[in-house]
Amino acid sequence: MKRNRGRGQVVQDALLDMDERIDGDPLLSEEDKADIKDRARKHVLELKKKAATEQEFDRQVKLANTEWDPREQLVDILIDLPQFTPFIRLDNTVYFHGLLYEVPNKVAITMRDQMARSWEHQNEIMGHSRSGDHARVPQNRIINDRNPEGTSVTTTGALRSALSA
User: What pTM value is reported for the model?
Assistant: First the structure.
């Protein structure tokens, strides 16, 4: 007849069974098991140390490379965006508004451009003129014998007299 055991009892029984199997090995003495355990810990420690060494080496190579290439030098940049833009995403990395990031110079250039374009868009939808709009306004410049420098003609009378000449 089976009796109902709780989940905790089942887990405890399984752990005791595993301990009996490991400890019940007649080929290994307690001293051998302790030696194997020490060797295993040393092996894991060596693997972890090797991985940490490789990671630090890669980081130092990147830092040394930044000395040679100005685009790779690390710069601090504060993300300042208008209200409609909560973040900038570059190369699947998200940079949030109001935070300071340390990025390579080539990434900072792109981020500054994105921030400037976002602010230009914000100004445009708020009704302000864009930075390049002044180049689109007609200057009313007429170059002829009476106006050799092409100064701006502001009145219609001056325009008629300049055109008739």
Answer: 0.46
